[in-house]
Amino acid sequence: MGVLISLLLSVGASGVTSNAQATQESWRQFRGSPELTGISSSKLPETLELLWTYEGEDSIDSSAAIVDGVVYVGTFSGDLLALSLRDGSLRWKFSVGEEGIGESSPAVSNGIVYVGDLAGVVHAVDTVSGEAVWTFQTLGEIKSSPVIIKEKLLIGSYDEHVYCLSAKSGELLWKLRSNGFIHGTPATSKGLTYVTGCDSMLRAVRITDGKEMYQIDSGSYTAASPALVGGFAYYGTFDNQVLAVDLAKLEIAWRYEHPVRHFPFYSSAAVIDGRVVLGGRDKMVHCLDARSGEALWTFRTGARVDSSPVVTGGRVYIGSNDGRLYVLDLATGEKLWEFDAGAPLSASPAVAEGRLVIGSQDGILYCFGSATQNTNE
């Protein structure tokens, strides 16, 4: 596909980290880090134990954040929940309104938790009191998740804009128009944010002032969020392909498509140790070589896989719409463990403080770990 360069300054497009991961102590946002790599350094037990569940009122498509012994997650019924990571007890519940929270996942920074809702509102809520700090209204539903970078909040909206707000006040700092819905979450590194969208473009935008530096045509509608590792952006498309984009050369380095099963990729990738792992609507988890795009292994589930994987300790943790949470060996794709939740798991796992948290479409939030391990709370 051709590359359209609208502006390219001397900011290094390839300046992305190869080892970004969430810390042991926290999982502050969707995919764990601003680079959206889906990697955690928190150690999980070899065999997970179900420690607690929390029953919400409606589907939980939002992926949790875990910070300082507290779990934050949104529900389709319109509640932003703060729960104890230790035992699942409710600390507070904040209602965003009847439109509810879809796939937008909370981000936590400096004592505030942020999330978008299906009415198009960005909410900032105090983590201690559960009271509103500010709100910002967009003109379309929000399924993108907020990312906080140096007191700036970045988020996409179905009104075809990516927004940059003051994390402290909610003041609009800039917005950039695309030519389609923005479903995915902005990935950020080295002063740039990278945004995929329904107009097929991957955009690189300067965070300081919202100036578009360049755009690259993916060739198809994209709902997945890009993962940034080693100067490349990795993401799947609705044209049944996974792409690796070389951010220095401004070109697509490779495209992967399964030779037989041609289905969209909605899941966002985890990237580690030269491997790209993501789910497909072909009911499979795919592991690809990060440099060549060659398939290393696939794992078949019983339904489409919209959940985005988390990798830690050489293992892949991912949900499926067949209602199961799977643990796979990163090297081989061998199934090591599974848990049957009995309802689709389209949300993505959050891993921190030795525990894994994931919600289901029947409104139950699950916490796994070891009963003998203490949390930071």
What does this structure look like?
This protein has 377 residues and is mostly beta strands. The protein has a single domain, classed as YVTN repeat-like/Quinoprotein amine dehydrogenase (Methylamine Dehydrogenase, Chain H). 0% of the residues lie in helices and 43% in strands. It has no helices and 34 strands. A five-stranded antiparallel β-sheet has the order 1-19-18-17-16, with no helix packed on it. The protein has a five-stranded antiparallel β-sheet with strand order 2-4-5-6-7, with no helix packed on it. The termini are far apart.
Brief summary of the model shown:
With 377 residues, the protein is an all-beta fold. The protein contains no helices and 34 strands.
Describe how the helices and strands are arranged.
Layout (H helix, E strand, L loop, with lengths): L2 E2 L21 E2 L21 E7 L9 E3 L2 E5 L4 E6 L5 E6 L11 E3 L2 E5 L4 E6 L5 E6 L9 E3 L2 E5 L4 E6 L5 E6 L9 E3 L2 E4 L5 E6 L5 E6 L9 E3 L2 E5 L5 E5 L4 E6 L13 E3 L2 E5 L4 E6 L5 E6 L9 E3 L2 E5 L4 E6 L5 E6 L9 E3 L2 E5 L4 E6 L8
Antiparallel strand pairs: 1-19, 2-4, 3-34, 4-5, 5-6, 6-7, 8-9, 9-10, 10-11, 12-13, 13-14, 14-15, 16-17, 17-18, 18-19, 20-21, 21-22, 22-23, 24-25, 25-26, 26-27, 28-29, 29-30, 30-31, 32-33, 33-34
